[in-house]
Amino acid sequence: SPKLFIFDLDGVITDTAEYHYLAWKKLAEELDVSFDRQFNEQLKGISRMESLELILAKNRSLSLSDHEKEKLANDKNEYYKQLIESINGENTLPGIEKLIKEIKENNIKIALGSASKNANMVLDKLGLTEYFDYIVDAAKVKKGKPDPETFTTAADAFSIHYSDCIGIEDAVAGVEAINKASMFSVGVGSTEHLAEADYVVNDTSGLQFEELVRQYSN
Ligand code: B16
Ligand code: MG
């Protein structure tokens, strides 16, 4: 059976994806750059600065200094923090707390592998921090998703073999990162979108502990 579960945060544990979307949309409007949900899909799992670069690339006439980019990324983060101000345990996605408890009861370790620098704050607001044996510090990861570093960092913290890990992700870049780490990848979303995942569920309520272990063992 697996020795470590590594959870993505945004889109798996809670739907902060919506707040990231709204915060980027506000910034894009200020910059007069077109922005919609379809484009936003590309930003899932990607770091703040990389997301900004993708948005700025839509308007080639905008050439900004590093300092200006830092300011814009910071503005987006302030909008985001305002939006997540009032989240609480009710914002944990369906089935997640049950799954986490079952993993614990089976003495399997749990780590968080999020690209978000706000991850600690979000987990705290959801009341889930106590369940996590390790939280990857996004600020220390050199190569973000789709590079496997986020996931291998979590396994390395326990010296657990990558093949003994299950990673759960909602983003294409995240699934790619798990696969590159040679871990078992679970995708949350459409099979079409997450075709590369070893196992896909439509939404988080489909994440059943026994089934995940069975799929992993096959
Ligand atoms: P922050 P995840 C990712 O979280 C989000 O999916 C992505 O949209 C966001 O840009 C990234 O975190 C960085 O977040 O601006 O809070 O540092 O899906 O890896 O949990
Ligand atoms: Mg995600």
UniProtKB/TrEMBL annotation:
One Pfam family of this chain: Hydrolase
Reactions mediated catalytically: beta-D-glucose 1-phosphate = beta-D-glucose 6-phosphate
Required co-factors: Mg(2+)
Database matches in SUPFAM superfamilies: HAD-like (SSF56784)
Full protein name: Beta-phosphoglucomutase
EC number from the UniProt entry: 5.4.2.6
Gene field: pgmB
Molecular functions per Gene Ontology: beta-phosphoglucomutase activity
Family as reported in the entry's similarity comment: Belongs to the HAD-like hydrolase superfamily. CbbY/CbbZ/Gph/YieH family.
Organism placement in taxonomy: Bacteria, Bacillati, Bacillota, Bacilli, Bacillales
Source organism of the structure: Ornithinibacillus salinisoli
Keyword tags: Carbohydrate metabolism, Isomerase, Magnesium, Metal-binding, Phosphoprotein
